[in-house]
Amino acid sequence: MGEIPCILSIGAILIAFKCLLIPSYTSTDFEVHRNWMAVTWNRPLKAWYTESTSEWTLDYPPFFAYFEWALAYVAHTIGFDDCLQISMTPIMSPRILVFQRLSVIATDIFYVSSRIFWNIAICALYAFKSPRLVAGIPKKMRKNAQEACFILLATLQALLICDSVHFQYNSMLTAFFILSMYFIDFGMFLLIFFQAALTFSVLLNFKHIYVYYALGYVFFYLVNYFEFSVAKFLRNFSKGTTRYSFQSLTEFLSAISLAIFLLLPFAFSIFPFFHVAGAEGLQNIATRLFPVSRGLTHAFWAPNFWALYNFADLILYRVLSNLNIGKFEAPTYTSGLVQEYSHSVLPSVNPIGTLFLVVIASVIVLTGLVIRWRKDSRPVDFSLFAVFSALSFFYFGYHVHEKAIILITVPMTIFAIKDPKYHSHLIHLSCVASFSLFPLLFTPFEVLLKYAICVAYFFIQLTFLKRYTRMPLGDLLPWRHVASWAGLAIVEIYNTFLHKWLLSDRLPFAPLMVISVLTSIELTSFFGSLIWTTFADGIIEISWQKATCRLREQLIRDMTYSVQTVEDEQDVQIVAGVDTSASSSNPDMVYVSVSFWKYPGLQHLATISDTRILRLPYIPQYLAVREAEVVADFVRTVIAERPELRPDVILCDGFGRFHSRSCGMACHVGALTGIPSIGIAKNLALHDVYETVGIDKKSKVDQFVDSCREVRKPKNECIYKSNKPVPGFIPFDIVEPVKLNILRMGGSMVTIQALSKLLLFFEFQSGVFVSAGYGIDLDLATTISSKFLLNNTTCEPIRAADLESRRLVRENFDGNRDKIE
Fold first, then answer.
1. Counting C-beta atoms within 10 Å of the first and last residue's C-beta, which end of the chain has fewer, N or C?
2. If DSSP states are collapsed to H, E and C, what string results for 51-83?
């Protein structure tokens, strides 16, 4: 589907669906926004933030107050003056309902609309025109990625529930944030950076909760705009100097310009109030925007750290009270009311304490993010800065509302499109967000509606993410996530349909508390998993993966893994070859292919391929850490679906026991699949040989290399240089027992410069080097491998898998680009 049809179709469907939602239930937010229209229309400017006839006083920044005045002007113009009455009691009528619902639908044009409205259709603008969205995505997947981004943002279930059912204007405000991200993605010019900062500043003056993103902006601008160096800062700090000096007059002037762009919206926002009421007018705004009398948590606890803190305090209170240990006041945070409260056992928490935790958590994670990208020399992507910044504020913030989870899901959706490794994280976050928002809607009609919206979005998300990456469902839906959703679904069903029937009016807050605690646990898990995945290539992760790999290798060497060993050639009926090919644009995205062949008849049975995401970094001498489990899992999946193809031996592109730790890639694949394996390498680097046999045997290796050179001279018609089948092999008998047999030396021998640029190493290329993997001996492995050489430079099953994976990479990932080796 092209851009225009996609945008038109989704826009029309959404508008029609939102029109059908007009008669949905009326939440208190209807009266909130109706009263704000009435206040801004009937009261002078200086009284906007002091008017208190209704309990729903104006508590959003001035730009949103001006927006309410504009809505009031429209209502007055078209004869809806009944919307504009100031009253102590709520006012609602069909006319008011229709007007307010249509105002949300109209402002949604700013979020998603047709191509005609490019200047205001921010969602479509970002999805189809942002240069960074698809910069790291394989060429042939970019269109699907853009469509997935647009559809997932346009149909975001949290926005539908909060805006079109519960009633708010979050879509319009989210559009400002996405527009700022769009400018950042074009941030090669100073003016674009200024536009991004200006847009965010405007957003803050509409709704101050978007300060959740502030530290993300700060860190991103320090790194990209001012080119701030963490290493330089730490050096200065160690010398007792923490002052950051501007490197040039140009940089200083740029900083001043940026500050002006940031302050301009604030000046336009608050100056009219200062003009009519002086400092008192500013104080009135601050008092309304930052009330501290609402308590640590909302009436329904948002899924964050403080929900767990409240629950721990409640458990301690119950246990200690039953054991008659100490005297504690009964908790009041389970009353379901918005109020200040003190904890019974644990220390009470004030706003300053939560702000301290927010800043500390944000600074630690964002600093780590800066260091990670500086180390890897990769472009810093703002969307992940925004995710971590919003997540830190949401998790540790004071009086967080569950609806604020939208601030995490929006940038996370964008970042997951940019990096498919995070697709399972995005789906999990979306499901947790759905469950945390369910308590907002509780009337019978809306109960079914909220379930329908969230289930539909789940399948839309799953469908378009799978269409985009072709990843298997198992990678998108880990079993632990599915189990947690099942638990949450049971509690939700109990809360909605069974609790009141079983317990009448007793313990009304109990099931809501359980939902809060369970979603808090899942959000904590998401936070930890996000950190772990993002910093997976750090020192800690590399050390951990190396240690885990060495432990597994010891178990493999001890033959701990079960395997149906092959002791005779007669036991082999089917042989499989496996290989992977990676995208040039994103080496983490690979095609895994497995080719099945009859033995000894050498008839090709089938070649099966699928996409996989390599989630772990490449570590030299530890290739199995990155690829072994992915390859083994794919082989197991294929065998489960096609048991008649179960091979007796697997040929792997790599080494087996001929390895510096006597456990190469083939050993891992054989142990993890329970199928005997053979390692067949095409290249043999001498520096790896030295590592494997020991540097003390270097002279013997060099003599062996010299003899091989003599064998390869043109005057010697040696069969090892020919591409025709060979009956014999060269045993690499430098060490005993022999772990490597050479079926073919290949036609080329190149000199490789080491990374240090001081040492030169030789590498034999396009050869056939056989080493036993797991569950088979070297002699039998050599016999089987030699029969598959045919007229090629490697064994046919591996060659077939390699060619198929390369073809699929070209067709579905990179076009005509070659595979990254």
1. C
2. CCCCCCCCCCCHHHHHHHHHHHHHHHHCCCHHH
